[in-house]
């Protein structure tokens, strides 16, 4: 063995896939070496392109080049060992049937001799003219199973009628008139079918992997929804408990205050009585002393002053009005019930607004529908009345003479929500409208005409346009209005976003065509209503209280 070949041991020259001495070795970027044929077959049968040893992945199948150094070492090793790929058979290998001492690994099996041979004992089959005609194959076990049990001949044909392997004599004797094809032909057909099956299985694996991802994503969303709902619930019930605690404190405080006032009043009365008692006792003592006097002049002179010092107030008619606490708890409970009712209703509206905001959509105004006097911002998010009309084409889509504009986006199913900033405005109209609404002439806005809207007039008059305007009560001037639509349920709701309260709901309608968000900034009114109506970005309401 040469010095160069001694640098590597036999184990270092073995392919990690076939466990044999390298045959046309190639080196992967990770540094591991494999037979070129082995690594290609491995990648062809795998979904991912990665190293079998360290599992490092590659983005695509590589252009493999032979490692000449390893190849030369493997070649020298074969020559020095006196065999090319022969080595002692290991578990899982097919052993040579001729080796008597150490069984070498077989490199070929003969279907005629029904024996497997290592490199050394295969030589006669490669050199002897008579043996060259034998059919050799890759090493296989159980060669007897490859022989016809009836005719003792190799199974070289396939009977399609009986779906079984047969020998050359079977079609003549036992499988007459059956459809018989060469085993290789059936092999190619089945291999092609296996390829299709492999592709189909690969697709099925991918489908199931995607389904797992879908389920995990759905579970994640469900978990987030559950956590959010729990957080909302905690906030709602915390607010209710705080209201109960506040009502309890108010009840106790009221009773305590009344009791203290009563005690102060009683204390004052008692102090006056005690003071008069003390004065009377003093007068009584002086009277007793005077009554024992035998000085006529002294008695007469002091009697009048002592008589005048006696209190004249009649206390039998005096009483203390003690409060009755009966019904105090009931009154407090009635007030609490009213307070909680209002708070629960507000919290319900708040929860509805929070859910509605989950369906926020991004809207832009459609200039093709805008009245000629309306001015739209470049980003399509703002609109105001510009007094002077622009020169635009008056198409069937454009409103005239009503100063209105629609959004570009339309909706024909599901839920959607948007918000509009109406701060500093004295007049506006907001909502949704059917695609088929009349856009020419003055058309009253109401559901019968395809509009579901609310408005502000004269700076303080809010109303839902249900036919004749239905006045709405608001606690303070609206600055931001939210519009929620459930197309399938036939519902349109309007919210005061800052107060987090419901303004009005149109319900019980059946939408049969596209709905468009509808905007009207109102007339300029000599600059009083010059502020724009703005489609604002929705900031989700995370805090309920």
TrEMBL record:
One of its GO terms (biological process) is innate immune response. It comes from Sparus aurata. One of its GO terms (molecular function) is zinc ion binding. The keyword Nucleotidyltransferase does not apply. PROSITE patterns: B302_SPRY (PS50188), ZF_BBOX (PS50119), ZF_RING_1 (PS00518), ZF_RING_2 (PS50089). Keywords: Coiled coil, Immunity, Innate immunity, Metal-binding, Zinc, Zinc-finger. It comes from the Eukaryota. InterPro entries: B30.2/SPRY, B30.2/SPRY_sf, Butyrophylin_SPRY, ConA-like_dom_sf, E3_ubiq-ligase_TRIM/RNF, PRY, SPRY_dom, TRIM8/14/16/25/29/45/65_CC. The keyword Metal-binding applies. Residues 241-293 form a coiled coil. This is E3 ubiquitin-protein ligase TRIM39-like. Residues 15-55 form the RING-type domain. Pfam families: PRY (PF13765), SPRY (PF00622), TRIM_CC (PF25600), zf-B_box (PF00643), zf-RING_UBOX (PF13445). Residues 143-183 form the B box-type domain. Residues 343-540 form the B30.2/SPRY domain. One of its GO terms (cellular component) is cytoplasm.
């Amino acid at each position: 063995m040469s010095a160069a070949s001694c640098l590597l041991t036999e184990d270092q020259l073995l392919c990690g896939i076939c466990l044999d001495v390298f045959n046309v070795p190639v080196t992967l970027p990770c540094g591991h070496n494999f037979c070129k044929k082995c690594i290609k077959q491995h990648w062809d049968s795998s979904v991912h392109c990665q190293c079998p040893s360290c599992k490092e992945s590659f983005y695509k199948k590589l252009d493999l080049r032979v490692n000449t150094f390893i190849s030369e070492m493997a070649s020298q090793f074969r020559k020095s060992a006196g065999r090319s790929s022969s080595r002692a058979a290991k578990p899982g290998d097919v052993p040579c049937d001729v080796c008597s001492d150490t069984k070498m690994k077989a490199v070929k099996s003969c279907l005629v001799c029904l024996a497997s041979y290592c490199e050394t004992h295969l030589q006669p089959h490669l050199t002897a003219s008579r043996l060259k005609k034998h059919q050799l194959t890759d090493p296989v076990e159980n060669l007897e199973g490859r022989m016809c049990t009836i005719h003792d001949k190799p199974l070289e044909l396939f009977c399609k009628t009986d779906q079984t392997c047969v020998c050359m004599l079977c079609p003549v004797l036992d499988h007459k008139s059956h459809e018989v094809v060469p085993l290789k032909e059936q092999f190619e057909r089945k291999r092609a079918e296996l390829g299709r099956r492999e592709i189909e299985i690969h697709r099925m694996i991918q489908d199931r992997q995607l389904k797992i991802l879908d389920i995990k994503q759905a579970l994640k969303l469900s978990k987030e929804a559950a956590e959010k709902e729990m957080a909302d619930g905690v906030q709602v019930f915390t607010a209710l408990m705080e209201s109960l605690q506040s009502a309890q404190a108010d009840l106790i405080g009221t009773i305590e205050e009344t009791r203290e006032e009563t005690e102060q009043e009683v204390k004052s009365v008692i102090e006056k009585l005690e003071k008069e008692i003390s004065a009377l006792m003093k007068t009584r003592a002086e009277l007793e002393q005077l009554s024992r006097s035998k000085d006529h002049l002294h008695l007469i002179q002091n009697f009048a002053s002592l008589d005048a010092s006696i209190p004249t107030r009649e206390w039998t008619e005096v009483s203390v009005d003690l409060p009755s606490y009966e019904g105090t708890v009931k009154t407090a409970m009635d007030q609490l019930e009213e307070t909680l009712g209002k708070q629960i209703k507000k919290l319900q509206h708040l929860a509805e607004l929070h859910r509605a905001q989950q369906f926020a959509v991004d809207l832009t105004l459609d200039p093709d529908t805008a009245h000629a006097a309306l001015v739209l911002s470049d980003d399509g998010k703002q609109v105001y009345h510009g007094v002077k009309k622009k020169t635009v084409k008056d198409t069937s889509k454009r409103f005239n003479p009503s100063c209105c504009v629609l959004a570009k986006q339309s909706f024909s199913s599901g839920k959607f929500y948007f918000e509009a900033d109406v701060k500093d405005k004295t007049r506006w109209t907001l909502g949704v409208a059917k695609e088929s609404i009349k856009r020419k002439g003055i058309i009253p806005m109401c559901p019968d005409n395809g509009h579901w809207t609310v408005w502000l007039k004269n700076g303080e008059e809010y109303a839902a346009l249900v036919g004749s305007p239905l006045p709405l009560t608001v606690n303070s001037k609206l600055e931001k209005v939210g519009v929620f639509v459930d197309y399938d349920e036939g519902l349109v709701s309007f919210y005061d976003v800052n107060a987090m309260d419901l303004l009005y709901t149109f319900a019980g309608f059946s939408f049969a065509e596209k709905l468009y968000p509808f905007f009207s900034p109102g007339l300029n009114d000599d600059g009083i209503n010059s502020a724009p109506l703005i489609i604002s970005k929705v900031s989700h309401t995370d805090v309920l209280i």
